[in-house]
Amino acid sequence: MDFEPWWLIFVPVLFALGWLAARFDIRQMLRETRSLPDSYFRGLNFLLNEEPDRAIDAFVEVAKLDPETTELHFALGSLFRRRGEMERAIRVHQSLLNRSDLPAAEREHAQHELAQDFLKAGMLDRAESGFEQLKDTRYALPALRSLIRIFESEHDWPRAIEAVKTLQGLVDEPVPQIVHYYCEQAQSALSSKPADIEAAHKALDAADHALSAIDAASSRGAMVRTAMLRARLALIEQDPKRERLYLESVMTDAAEYSGLVAEQVLANYRAANQAEAGLEVLQKQYERHASLDLFNVLFRELRVQQGAAPAWTFARSALRSHPSLLGLDRLLEAELANPEGGADHVPVPGADLTLLRSLIHKHTQRLDRYACRSCGFQARRFYWQCPGCNAWETYAPRRLEELE
């Protein structure tokens, strides 16, 4: 294709059009910039200088001067909520909802933000009401998840179960904690005076049905809890064989939880005048899957059945195989209870074992705890739901020292 000289005419024309477009954009930008209050730029400056408190004050002033800046209102409300200034967050979002000209989409957004404010402020009844109003909106899914959290905190297990079922109808995902909801119902029925046997059976049957729909790896703890409650129910119904079956199924199918059922296993054998056989069962379990909880039960039972010397021998052997301060604490306890020791005992000349044990015991009190894998909350007893973050099955069935 040949070049035509008259094509050069288009060069200055295109340049002129570009120049005009640039001037128009610059003027438009200058007009928009001049329309912004000075507080807006002061706020940006404070943010750049890492002065968030003064920046917030400046942006609040902008919002007062220009009530139409809904995005700024949302940003301020969220910022107040993250900082824990719930009263200010609620006021910002309520002011948005009070506007009659607010579009429907932004009204739903404001309603969702306000419900979250109430939830974080602990105003559960108002939060629940706010989330209920969002069921038929684009915020239905997060609102439903928040409602489940509210029902959990209120221990309203029937409503929590219904909410989970609704959630499963909206999204195809497993919700493992529903098994624990049924277990909570069963536990409540068994704890009532007198125990509501029929309600406990019904709740545990529902728990088993829910377990069948969940991946086994993600429901190990729920399976153990269900078996433990079945064992407790069998004990109330005076069916020791069925109780033993459920307890030993835990040691077989989830050996890491053996320490949680060891006391009940011993009590079951003891009630049948088979205490020695029960001790043997736990000793074999410890050889297969050692844990501090199981060690503690075995140590105490050895002292009861066989005396301090065998308990000392067991503690020393366990300490050699699985070194731990908690094990040493139990070893010193046996040594102090039986200064003579066994045939192979070699006394420590001049050793103040009472002082040594008291020093070690202070440290073991810190290590003798369970810890949440999610938030790190520590407790002396085992929880299925963490009291700190409310997550389910985040406590490993092992003491803190075993996890370090």
From TrEMBL:
<feature type="transmembrane region" description="Helical">
    <location>
        <begin position="6"/>
        <end position="26"/>
    </location>
</feature>
<feature type="topological domain" description="Cytoplasmic">
    <location>
        <begin position="23"/>
        <end position="404"/>
    </location>
</feature>
<dbReference type="GO" id="GO:0008653">
    <property type="term" value="P:lipopolysaccharide metabolic process"/>
</dbReference>
<dbReference type="InterPro" id="IPR030865">
    <property type="entry name" value="LapB"/>
</dbReference>
<keyword id="KW-0802">TPR repeat</keyword>
<keyword id="KW-1003">Cell membrane</keyword>
<protein>
    <recommendedName>
        <fullName>Lipopolysaccharide assembly protein B</fullName>
    </recommendedName>
</protein>
<comment type="similarity">
    <text>Belongs to the LapB family.</text>
</comment>
<feature type="binding site">
    <location>
        <position position="389"/>
    </location>
    <ligand>
        <name>Fe cation</name>
    </ligand>
</feature>
<keyword id="KW-1133">Transmembrane helix</keyword>
<keyword id="KW-0677">Repeat</keyword>
<feature type="binding site">
    <location>
        <position position="372"/>
    </location>
    <ligand>
        <name>Fe cation</name>
    </ligand>
</feature>
<dbReference type="Pfam" id="PF18073">
    <property type="entry name" value="Zn_ribbon_LapB"/>
</dbReference>
<dbReference type="InterPro" id="IPR041166">
    <property type="entry name" value="Rubredoxin_2"/>
</dbReference>
<dbReference type="Pfam" id="PF13176">
    <property type="entry name" value="TPR_7"/>
</dbReference>
<keyword id="KW-0472">Membrane</keyword>
<keyword id="KW-0408">Iron</keyword>
<feature type="domain" description="LapB rubredoxin metal binding">
    <location>
        <begin position="370"/>
        <end position="394"/>
    </location>
</feature>
<dbReference type="InterPro" id="IPR011990">
    <property type="entry name" value="TPR-like_helical_dom_sf"/>
</dbReference>
<dbReference type="InterPro" id="IPR019734">
    <property type="entry name" value="TPR_rpt"/>
</dbReference>
<feature type="binding site">
    <location>
        <position position="375"/>
    </location>
    <ligand>
        <name>Fe cation</name>
    </ligand>
</feature>
<keyword id="KW-0479">Metal-binding</keyword>
<comment type="function">
    <text>Modulates cellular lipopolysaccharide (LPS) levels by regulating LpxC, which is involved in lipid A biosynthesis. May act by modulating the proteolytic activity of FtsH towards LpxC. May also coordinate assembly of proteins involved in LPS synthesis at the plasma membrane.</text>
</comment>
<feature type="binding site">
    <location>
        <position position="386"/>
    </location>
    <ligand>
        <name>Fe cation</name>
    </ligand>
</feature>
<dbReference type="GO" id="GO:0046890">
    <property type="term" value="P:regulation of lipid biosynthetic process"/>
</dbReference>
<keyword id="KW-0812">Transmembrane</keyword>
<dbReference type="GO" id="GO:0005506">
    <property type="term" value="F:iron ion binding"/>
</dbReference>
<dbReference type="GO" id="GO:0009898">
    <property type="term" value="C:cytoplasmic side of plasma membrane"/>
</dbReference>
<keyword id="KW-0997">Cell inner membrane</keyword>
